[in-house]
Design brief:
two-stranded antiparallel ribbon, 10 helices
């Protein structure tokens, strides 16, 4: 029961808290009715400006970082829960909460920033990767964004690359770890289906 509360329910409920909604409400707007309608930092940037977007971005990244960190503190032995490491499980549910928040009728963001927070946690605390990998991901994002001017494409590029980065680490305990991580990646890709359709039509928003 404790495992369920700490690894499933707690991450999902924290992930469900959407800072884009909060910022837009403070500014007397509804982010769902502005720009692309997506409650994420990119849409906040377009509609409410840089300061609001930076706040949302940092807050969403911190969700993905702090929730697995908290889970690791209360489960220091990293027990296995249904064959999947608790850390990966909690990372999945915090992103799932962001994408399908219970507080907002399951209409949430696309999960990239929260997923990035989870990646940063793995890099710093649970893997032999060093800061060069983090610099590599940031550089890749900026390069793709500079070339294509499409934030969604740049974001998805680093999401996919992370699969190769963490493959060896995730399969050390069980191959199920990697499969669950892969499921998380496909969830984020699926949330970008509207972006893919707009890219095919040439209507995707560009920076």
């Amino acid at each position: 029961m404790i495992d369920f509360l700490s690894v499933v329910l707690f991450p999902y409920l924290v992930g469900s808290f959407n800072f884009a909604y909060l910022v837009s409400q403070i500014n007397n707007t509804d982010i769902r009715n502005e720009g692309s309608g997506n409650p994420g930092s990119a849409n906040v940037l377009r509609t409410l400006g840089k300061k609001a977007a930076i706040f949302v971005l940092i807050a969403d990244i911190l969700k993905g970082f702090l929730v697995p960190y908290f889970v690791s503190l209360i489960n220091p032995t990293y027990e296995i829960y249904f064959g999947v490491e608790l850390i990966v499980f909690s990372g999945f549910f915090v992103v799932l909460g962001h994408c399908f928040p219970i507080y907002y009728k399951f209409k949430g963001g696309k999960g990239v920033a929260t997923f990035v927070g989870f990646i940063v946690y793995l890099i710093f605390l649970h893997y032999f990767l060093n800061l060069y990998w983090l610099v590599f991901l940031i550089g890749t994002y900026l390069l793709v964004l500079k070339i294509t001017k499409v934030s969604a494409l740049a974001s998805l590029t680093i999401v996919v690359i992370s699969c190769f980065m963490f493959y060896q680490y995730l399969i050390e305990v069980s191959f199920n770890n990697f499969l669950f991580y892969l499921l998380l990646v496909f969830l984020i890709i699926g949330k970008h289906s509207d972006n893919f359709n707009r890219m095919l039509k040439g209507d995707e928003n560009k920076f």
